[in-house]
## 1
Amino acid sequence: MKQLDKSKVCIILNKIMEYELAGVVRYTHSSLMVSGPNRIPIVEFLQSQAQESLTHAQEAGELLTGLDGHPSQKIPTIQDNNQHSIEDILKESLDHELHALGLYKELLESVQDSSIYLEEYSRNMISQEEKHTLELKKMLKDYS
């Protein structure tokens, strides 16, 4: 096994934590903006995504501090195009999930062959993010 680059891994985990915290804000905001006859199931979906983003941020933070890193208190700028149709919200959600997927893949590349635990964590998170992207793509099918 190769040596784990803790510094590099902590930087990536901090990016993940920040981005997942931004997801809490994004999904909460989006859930408040939904209107129309499909509001209730979409709001429930977005609220569950917000809660899951918080859990993901906490998990990344626990790993980060376990590796002697210091968790950031920042979140990235959240782009809001002020378009709040269900289609726009779902497209923004898909973009968000795809970006998160990229961060977890970056983490996997950094820990591969140096930490089985972090590899498995990364793979599990990649699996979850891929599942979310598939779900969002299915939800968007009615709009294409």
## 2
Amino acid sequence: MAGFGNIVQKAFYLGVGLASYANEKAGKTLAELRIQAQKLADELVERGEITTEEARKMVDEIVQQAQQPTVNPPQENASPQPRRIEIISDEEAPNSTPPQSTDVEDVEALRKQVQAMQEELRRLKRQ
């Protein structure tokens, strides 16, 4: 019976050690996050995009959100069975049709919009 008590004691100490280690790692990660958020806030204040008070609030909100446990929202249509995924290669796709001209035009229009946004971003960075 003494052997069983020894195993339970070791398991308990292992659990305490793991919890302590996890707490230490989380503290380091949280400190690193705070430093990164503060650097970002300082840069925004330096550019004049936000005030010092807004920067302080932003850093506090980021750290607070990081401290909150993440909870996955419940899925409404959760079924006990896994969802089936069918993979069809290009050779196997009998119903696939070549892209219509409107699809190609849409893609080209989207590319132009992205390029315009990238140019605007570059222009704003230069200011």
